[in-house]
């Protein structure tokens, strides 16, 4: 198994894992139970999404897409925080 994604949060890891599985790429979240041991510290370097080595090239494309969607969502949320009366965009 190879690391396809190092997660900032456990939720991000599961979003990536779910996207990979929808693309018929087997995926496993590693280190998710370690997050309880570190408390409020970020999960970075503790939580990763693993895929079989032969699936890594295909997984990289899926991971890039999910990362782009996460970045867009975080940007929209930060913009909404600046203007609380603005409607939140719909994500698909």
Key attributes of the depicted protein:
coiled coil, 13% strand, 3 helices, alpha+beta, 3-stranded antiparallel sheet, 3 strands, DUF2007 domain-containing protein
Descriptive notes:
The protein is of the alpha+beta class and 92 residues long. Helix content is 48%, strand content 13%. The chain has helices at residues 10-22, 35-38, 56-82; strands at 2-6, 28-30, 48-51. It has a 3-stranded antiparallel beta sheet with strand order 1-3-2, with helices on one face. Helix 1 (10-22) crosses helix 3. It starts with a strand and ends in a 10-residue tail after the last helix. The mean pLDDT is 84. Residues 56-83 form a coiled coil.
Q: Radius of gyration over alpha carbons?
A: 15 Å
Report the count of strand segments: 3
Envelope shape = elongated
What percentage of amino acids are in beta strands?
5-15%
Query: Strand order, biggest sheet?
Result: 1-3-2
- Could you tell me the mean pLDDT? 84
The number of helices is: 3
First-to-last CA distance: 30 Å
- The helix content is 40-55%
| Most strands sheet | 3 strands, antiparallel
Pfam family, one: DUF2007
Organism: Dyella kyungheensis
Protein name: DUF2007 domain-containing protein
Keywords: Coiled coil
């Amino acid at each position: 198994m190879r690391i396809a994604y190092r997660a900032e949060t456990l939720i991000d890891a599961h979003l990536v894992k779910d996207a990979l599985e929808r693309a018929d790429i087997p995926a496993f979240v590693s280190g998710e139970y370690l997050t309880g041991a570190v408390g409020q510290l970020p999960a970075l370097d503790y939580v990763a999404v693993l895929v079989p080595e032969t699936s890594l090239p295909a997984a990289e494309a899926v991971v890039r897409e999910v990362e782009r969607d996460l970045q867009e969502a975080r940007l929209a949320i930060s913009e909404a925080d600046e203007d609380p009366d603005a409607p939140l965009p719909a994500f698909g």
